[in-house]
Amino acid sequence: MRHTIAVLVENEFGVLSRVVGLFSGRGFNIDSLTVAPTNDESLSRITVVTRGDEQIIEQITKQLNKLIDVIKVIDFEAENAIEREMVLVKVNAEEQSRAEVLRIADIFRAKVIDVTPKSYTLEATGTPAKVSAMIELLRPLGLKELVSTGPVVIGRGAKGWKG
């Protein structure tokens, strides 16, 4: 089962390495990893997407909480979170496929951010499912390059984290 875990940490040298080391040292795979400072520059937020049953995720969160620089760990549930991913896709746009690329971009509210005689580069933001659906529609047209941020997540409602 897929889990999105957010980890609030001290923004210090080596913290990311210790968090990633915890996963690799215990044989847990990371599907996606996103890190950035928060509104408090002394803190960073690490978003990790991983897979495992409830027992494995509980073990991961307990181990993360033991790390000295970790302030808080949350395993987000889909119904209590807003999750978004950003993707840049370079796709073939020969004359016969240009209209189709633009139609797909319009459907998914993607922006065309670069145009060449043979390609379009699109920027799209949305749920991981939305981003995947767009990519699958573009794939038959010829993907040249694809890069993604991986998901980031924030809790629903007015309550926030410190940082």
Q: Characteristics of this structure?
A:
single chain, 163 residues, alpha+beta, five-stranded antiparallel β-sheet, 9 strands
Secondary-structure blueprint of this entry?
Blueprint: E1 2-10, H1 15-25, E2 30-37, E3 43-51, H2 54-66, E4 70-76, E5 81-92, H3 98-107, E6 111-115, E7 119-126, H4 128-142, E8 143-148, E9 152-155
Antiparallel strand pairs: 1-3, 1-4, 2-3, 5-7, 5-8, 5-9, 6-7
Helix pairs in contact: 3-4
* Secondary structure tally, helices: 4
User: Can you give the helix content as a percent range?
Assistant: 25-40%
**Helix-strand pattern, N to C?**
EHEEHEEHEEHEE
* Poorly predicted tracts of residues: none
| Biggest sheet record | 5 strands, antiparallel
The termini sit apart by: 28 Å
